[in-house]
Specification:
Blueprint (H helix, E strand, L loop, with lengths): L5 E6 L1 H18 L4 E8 L3 H10 L3 E12 L8 E6 L9 E9 L3 H11 L5 E9 L13 E5 L5 E2 L15 E5 L15
Parallel strand pairs: 2-3, 2-5, 5-6, 6-7
Antiparallel strand pairs: 1-9, 3-4, 8-9
The structure holds 1-O-pyrophosphono-5-O-phosphono-alpha-D-ribofuranose.
């Protein structure tokens, strides 16, 4: 019989709040007197973006994109496919791509390539979590990064396991760790 999994807190809600505020302060400082356009990557980033936007003391607008990834671990040329595009043009705007986690870097590498072709004034990356040990695309770096975490599968604060746990206030690890397929998604037993 499958063993029940429990949740162990890796990053507490208080630490998350501190990091979100710190990132927002940096963005507010860097873009003083300008407008910024936050682009959230669905679905994981929605909770982070919702908290972040309320801490930024600037004229802010936002939009969302959704992507699907294939071949994350098994293939270093892993592909990312656009599922939902932006609603409007970003030409001439200060765009900040907002992600819950920077993992292999494939998602952000793809997104920064397609968005930079649309001629924003600036294009930066904000990621609450960074897992550098899993990076495949080496030159993808966050401009605003919260917490560097070890190579553990995390859930909560927007991050899911088989669509569960996104609503947790803390970022947690599952004990024992879940079985994942090559794509980092729930394995065949789930
Ligand atoms: C997660 C996360 C990032 C991406 C990062 O999304 O939200 O978008 O993976 O991984 P990468 O750096 O290896 O590309 P996921 O595909 O799990 O979808 P979700 O946001 O809908 O949960």
């Amino acid at each position: 019989m499958a063993q029940a999994q429990r949740l162990k807190v890796l990053v507490s809600r208080a630490d998350i709040r501190r990091q979100v505020r710190s990132i927002a302060r940096h963005i507010t400082h860097d873009f003083r007197g300008e407008q910024v356009h936050l682009v959230g990557v669905l679905k994981g980033a929605c909770i982070f973006l919702a908290d972040l936007v309320r801490e930024i003391d600037l004229d802010v607008s936002m939009d969302f994109m959704a992507v699907a990834s294939y071949g994350r671990e098994s293939n270093s040329s892993g592909q990312v496919k656009l599922i939902k595009d932006l609603d409007s043009s970003i030409e001439g705007m200060n765009v900040i791509l907002v992600e819950d986690i920077l993992d292999t870097g494939l998602t952000l590498d793809y997104l920064r390539r397609i968005l930079s072709e649309r001629r924003p004034k600036t294009l930066r990356i904000a990621a609450l979590l960074d897992k550098p040990s899993r990076r495949i695309v080496r030159d993808v770096r966050g401009d605003y990064v919260g917490i560097t975490i070890p190579n553990q599968f995390v859930v909560g604060y927007g991050l899911d396991f088989a669509e569960r746990y996104r609503n947790l206030r803390d970022i947690c690890v599952l004990v024992p760790p879940p079985e994942l397929d090559n794509h980092g998604h729930p394995g065949p037993k789930r």
